[in-house]
Amino acid sequence: MPNDLWIWDMQKLKLFVVLEQAAPVRCFQWDPRRPRLAICTGNSKVYLWSPAGCVSVQVPVEGSFQVLSLNWHSSGESMVLLSKEQLCLCYMETPEGES
C-alpha cells in the first residue's frame, strides 16, 4: 500500500500537494460538503487535511482501536470509523453560523 496521497488542482491541472504518511494509507474519503479529506493508516488516529492545514486526531476510546476504514455522513458533520471488531462515531465541531 502507498504512503503518499497526491492531490491535484483540477482547475489548473497541476499537482496541489502530496501528503506523506509514516504508514501505508488504508482508507481516505473526501468530506461531502467541504474541501476536507479524512485519512486513516491503521493506527489509532484519523488525519484530516484541508487547504487551510492538517490535524491528527486521537480516537478517544479505551484499549486498542486501529482505524482501518472510515466513511463520512452525507452532512459532513460526522463519520464512522471502523476497526476489525469495533466502530466509533465521530462528530465534527461546526463553527457558529455554519451548518
Report the helical percentage.
Answer: under 10%
Q: Round the Cα radius of gyration to an integer and report it.
A: 14 Å
SSE order: EEEEEEEEE
Tell me about the largest β-sheet: 4 strands, antiparallel
Q: Into which percentage range does the β-strand content fall?
A: over 45%
- Low-pLDDT ranges: none
Tell me the total number of β-strands.
9
Task: Please tell me what the overall shape is.
Answer: globular
| Count of individual helical segments | 0
Query: Span between N and C termini?
Result: 35 Å
List keywords for this structure.
99 residues, mainly beta, 4-stranded antiparallel beta sheet, 3-stranded antiparallel beta sheet, 9 strands, 0% helix, globular
Protein described:
The protein is an all-beta fold and about 100 residues long. Helix content is about 0%, strand content about 45%. It contains no helices and nine strands. It has strands at about 5-10, 15-20, 25-30, 35-40, 45-50, 55-60, 70, 80, 85-90. The strands form three sheets. A four-stranded antiparallel β-sheet has the order 3-4-5-6, with no helix packed on it. Strands 7-8-9 form a three-stranded antiparallel β-sheet, with no helix packed on it. The chain has a two-stranded antiparallel ribbon with strand order 1-2. A hairpin with a 2-residue loop joins strand 5 and strand 6. The radius of gyration is 14 Å and the shape is globular.
